[in-house]
Design brief:
By secondary structure, the protein is mostly helical. The chain has two domains: 1-75, Type 1 dockerin domain (Orthogonal Bundle), CATH 1.10.1330; 76-106. The protein has four helices and no strands. The chain has helices spanning 16-25, 51-59, 68-74, 79-105.
Amino acid sequence: MGTWFGDANLDGEFNSTDLVVVFQAGVYEDSVLLNAGWSTGDWNGDGEFNSSDLVTAFQTGGYGQGPRDAVAASAVPEPSTCVALGLGISCAITAMRRRLVNRASR
């Protein structure tokens, strides 16, 4: 399952619910070393929940974007669109070549 950095509850979305979950865990910048995991805010893998984790989560751009799989799927063009674009470019190139050949033969 794909998810965003910051998605503490692994529901596929990074939103305010995740922030509430991690701050309720009570390990943000505490004095206990290496006591954080993904569900308690360690999103950069250093074993701690601190401002670096928040920066990591917000820099990836997933906050409030909805499920990552849905965002990724909507960004991929349909194969038929690519085929149509390729055919259109091929037709335009062919037409330009014919015009050049016709002008050169006159």
